[in-house]
Structures are given as structure tokens and as C-alpha cells.
């Protein structure tokens, strides 16, 4: 097998179909199919079960994938060393939706201007999903909040967020969960660091949220609050991007949990030239102040 074979195989594993893998590799599906079939013939094993248009990895395929990831990581690392650690090639960055929308545009614009040879891929997720992705080498670096202490990771503070509670216009001041009562809390799905923080804020006062409504974006949370669905929790920086026209009341989360530091995190020993370039751009941009 060649390295290109492994990259093709990994694309099929990660994308779940020949057509999606072909698109990510800028190849025709027939070429990807032929490469996978040739690998199976060379190895003498079946790597995928074919069910209609779906490909399900076999146990042998899963085993090969684990080794392929390690091999590709080593190959990429070797290539960077041989090239003198010059920034360039694919850079896979993960970020929270709020960071991608409100904090990163200036940083990534500078990265594009100063390092045009970097091919940036931006993935949006929750802190939990991004933490899992960085450990599995699916991403090169991530911007996350409350990543667990882990000897396998290195990190640097990127910027601070101030969490606020939003309610309908005219809502009485919110100082403790008593002021929310039985209203629903609008937040992201499980794995969101900000959702976990507001739950812990409730618990700090001996409360549990009566009902959590999971929404897929901050714009949806803002819209849901305006519609009277409940009280939302958002980073203050996100509100600058939303047109609310005076339809919301904003309440600071008056607790240490209301201040959250977003960190840039990467695998220990995997600080590539591209990650170093992100750090330089991050340092050279004046970080917006948390509200």
C-alpha cells in the first residue's frame, strides 16, 4: 500500500460514502472505488460491507483505520520537518460557533493574508465534540472552553468570554435561579461548555433547570427567547451579531461561572508550523474584551 491509498481509505471511513470521499479528495467516485477494491484485493480481506449506497467498515477495516491514522500523522509530521517547518498545506481548525462568528474572523483573515499557502478547514462543534476530535487527530487545533486537564494536550489562552442570560424585554432582573423560576432554559445540545456552566450555576444555588430546550444555533436561541420560549444563555459577544431591536433584556451571569476562557488546544508534540502560525496571528490581533 502507498500513503495515497491510506489517505483514500481514511477519507471513505470518515465521510461514510464513496461520493463524499471523492468530493473531499477532488477525485471521481469511480477512481476512489477502484482504489478501495485494489486495497482489498492486495490485503486479501474485505474492508467494507456494501449495503445499497452505504459503506459499513468491517472489523478489519476498523483495525486498518487505526493504523492508517497513526501512519498519516507521522508522515505529515515528517514532511513538516523536512520542509523546515514552513506554514503551508492543510490546517484543520475546530471552534465553537460563538468563537467562529464573533472572535475568529480577524484572526483567520490575518492567517490567510500572512500565510497564503495554508489551506484552512474550519469545523464547528461543541467543546466536547472538538475535544474528542483533537484526541483522535481529526483536527490539528481547536478553540474550546473547559477542555479537561489532559497530559496529551497543550494549550494557550485565546480570549475571555462573558456569559449573559437573555430574556424577553421587560423581564425583571435575574440575579439567581429564583428569578428564572420554572421557565425553560434555551441552550445548545449536551457537550456545550456554556450549557454546562449555566446548569452548574443553577446547582450552586440548590436548583436544577426545570426544562432545557436544545437549539442548534445562537440565532435560534435569541429568536426563541424573543418568542417567549424561555431564558437563554449566550456569550455576550454573540449579541453584537444579532439584531434584537430592543426585544431582549440582558442579564450578567453574576458568578465566577460567568467568565469563561477560550483556549487554543492541540496535541502534545504535534505543534506544527501551521499551529504556530495561528498562535502568532492570535497574539498579533487585539483580542476583544469580554463584556
From TrEMBL:
Keywords: DNA-binding, Transcription, Transcription regulation. It holds the Pfam family LysR_substrate. The keyword NAD does not apply. Coiled coil: none annotated. SUPFAM superfamilies: Periplasmic binding protein-like II (SSF53850), Winged helix' DNA-binding domain (SSF46785). The keyword S-adenosyl-L-methionine does not apply. Residues 1-58 form the HTH lysR-type domain. PROSITE patterns: HTH_LYSR (PS50931). Transmembrane segments: none annotated. InterPro entries: LysR_HTH_N, LysR_subst-bd, WH-like_DNA-bd_sf, WH_DNA-bd_sf. One of its GO terms (molecular function) is DNA-binding transcription factor activity. It comes from the Bacteria. Belongs to the LysR transcriptional regulatory family. This is LysR family transcriptional regulator.
